[in-house]
Structure formats: structure tokens, C-alpha cells
Amino acid sequence: MLENLSQQPADKILALMAQYKADERPGKIDLGVGVYKNAEGKTPVMRAIKAAERRLVEEQESKSYTGLAGDPAFADAMIELVLGDSVARDRVAAIATPGGTGACRQGFELVRLANPQATVWVSNPTWPNHVSILKFMDMPQKAYRYFDDSTGGIDFDGMLEDLAGAKAGDIVLLHGCCHNPTGANLTLDQIDEVIAVMEGKGLVPMIDIAYQGFGDGLDADAAVTRRVATAFDNVLIAASCSKNFGVYRERTGILMAISKDADEAALSQQNMNYLNRQNYSFPPDHGARCVSMILSDPELRADWQAELEEVRLGMLELRKQLADELRRLTNSDAFDFVAEHRGMFSRLGLSPEQVETLKTDHAIYMVGDSRINIAGLNKDTVPVLARAIAEVIGD
Ligand code: LMR
Questions:
Q1: Which residue CA neighbors atom 5 of ligand 1 most closely?
Q2: Fewer CB atoms inside 10 A, N or C side of the chain?
Q3: Residue of the nearest CA to atom 4 in ligand 1?
Q4: pLDDT-based confidence at 214, cuts 50/70/90?
Q5: pLDDT of 395 above 80
């Protein structure tokens, strides 16, 4: 039987991770996978997570199953974190999922149950795994224009034009903040225009929010999601705790489905529980429990927010330093967008050949579309990267 298998496409981000690991050159720089690293190149366990884990070890009395939707306290805490008071709680159904990827997958599964004809519109570009999962599930997908490589900003007219071509009931997948891979984000005025087009066409929003707190702050980063949440009867939201709580390997995420009223929410909830049961029964609990403990304990929450803010401000500083350095070395403002972008990523607009040269000649690893993880830098490696970029674009 197994001889019938054929090779599956490699995930480019994960393949790059392995290549970097195997590279023995000293001074190599990893700007690939979206994992936060501090100035020493470490991905620390956040202080509040350590404290919550200690408390959990002391206090937890059972590892028996949770409900199919996961711990209700986790859902309450995450709904508050992401949605604030923008939507009545009884309109929101939610299931804990294995990370943000699990939330996206379960969201797509819910779409397929509710409307198998729906095409899912993704930004061009988007996180490659969105495209890959939809393809694997054999769901119809199309791309809407989003990023303008020549300016490093958003092709907003292109986006609106493409969305105007969607059919009623189609899903529009938006990034809540810190767009991955580009770093370019819609303003609130722009999201209002997008909402107007979507309402006009009867489109349904799905939001992937994986970097809340990495851009302009926890509430500012949730503003687009909240604006969308108040505008539609139905909204799907896939949220991840991997990055903002640093619990990558604990697989901690949540799918929320905003429904038009409490009755519809109960039906959504029943379907979402069913989807969890079919795919893995009970979702992982350890990370989720730490997260809800932190969010409901004022002291832990304050400490978590303080550490997250240090992370965010550190990335902003690196952005500014890189933009300044590139302006100086290239004698142009062509890379100023790096300081305007938000979140962990920026797409630099380099060619695949230039990206390859950075890897082979300079031991600098970035995703093939020239996405860099800003957190892979520190103040000493920013000038190294800037010099290498100036050199490859000068070639
Ligand atoms: C990324 O885009 O690098 C992260 O979201 C990690 C992943 O799973 O791809």
C-alpha cells in the first residue's frame, strides 16, 4: 500500500529552517520561520508562562478530559482579549484548537459544512499554509491583490476590485494585524471600505489573527478584527497564542464563530464541537490553561503585557535601525517601508536570485519571497544585513 504514496510538496518555511540548522558557517543569520528571538537569539519561555506552569503543577488535580470545545475559561478569556466588548458574548461560539493552524483548519472545515460552494479569497501573498491547507482540502480558493512590491505598501485599489468580483457567500480571509508575509496592514479607514464592498456583495469575513500585540499594541492590533466583528452577522476568527504567549509547541489556538444571535451561536457551537471530535476529540489543554490563568490574574496579566511590550518595542527599534541603515547605504528611501510595516515580518521586494545570493554568499536566510523575520536580527546584525542587501541589489 505505502508504495503508492508520492512525494508531498515540502513546506518552504520549514525546509529553510532545516537548511539553516545544517549550515556550519559562524555568524549565519536566521530570518526565516516566524518565531520570536531575543537579542541573544533565544526564544525564551515568557515569565508569566513560567509562573502559570509552576502554579498548574502545584494546583492541577486531574488530567482527565476537558469538554470538546476545551476549557470554557480559555474561550472567555480569549474572546475578551480579541473582541473586547465589540460583540455580545452569547453570539460567539468557540473551540480551542491545536495552535493557529488548527484554528484555520477548523474554520475552513466549518465553511465547508455551512457552504461547500464558497470560494475562500486569500490575499496575494498570504501565509503559504493557508493556500496549502485549502488545496489539501480541495476547497475553492482565489487570491485578491494585496501587496504592491514596488512600494512595499498595499495595492488597495486592486484589492477592492478583486473583492468586487467575488460571489455572495464567498469567504474573505483577512489578517487581523501584522500581515504575514508582507508586514503591510490595512488602516481602519481602509477596512471600512473593504467592509462596505463585502457587505454590498454578501461576503463573509474570516480573520486570522496570529500576532496580536506584536504590531501597535494589544488593543490597537485587535481594532480591525473588532471593526469587522461589529459589522457582520457572521465572522470566523482564528486566533493563535503561539507568538504573543510564546507557547509555540504547546499548540494553543482558538476558533471563534460570531453568529447572528444566541440560537445560531448554539448551532455553530454544536458543529464546532463535532469538528473537534472528528479531527482529534479534545484539544490540547496545557497552553490554553496557562493562557487563561494569565489573562484572569491581574498580576500575571500585567507581567505578561509588560514582557510582550518589550518584545514589540524591540522589534520596532530594529525596524527603524534597518530602515535608517538601508537609507544610508543605498542613498535612497526605497526601503523606508520597513519602518512603516508592523509585526514580525517585512517583505523586502528582492528577487529570488538575490535571496539565494544572500544565503550562499552571506549566510543570511530569509524566505524565498524575501520575507524577513525582524526578530531574527539584533542591533549588531542589522548593519550586516543592510550591507549584504546593499551589495546584492548593487550587483
Ligand atoms: C511563519 O509564518 O513562519 C510561522 O507562522 C510559522 C509557521 O508555522 O509557518
A1: 34
A2: N
A3: 34
A4: very high
A5: no
Q: Return the percentage of the chain with pLDDT > 90, whole number.
A: 98
pTM over 0.80: yes
State yes or no: is 210 an active-site residue. yes
How far apart, in whole angstroms, are the C-alpha atoms of residue 358 and residue 322?
16
Residue indicated by cell numbers 445560531: 264
- Measured from the CA of 373, which atom of ligand 1 is nearest? 3
CATH (one of 1.10.533.10, 3.40.50.800, 3.90.1150.10, 2.40.260.10) for 12-44+310-394: 3.90.1150.10
> Is domain 65-296 annotated with CATH 3.40.50.2300?
no
What's the half-sphere exposure (Cβ side, CA atoms, 13 Å) at 149?
8
In order of 32, 100, 184, 222, the CA distances from 346 in angstroms are: 11, 20, 8, 20
Among residues 30, 77, 93, 127, which one is catalytic?
A: 127
Domains of the chain, residue spans: 12-44+310-394, 65-296
Q: What is the ipTM of this complex?
A: 0.92
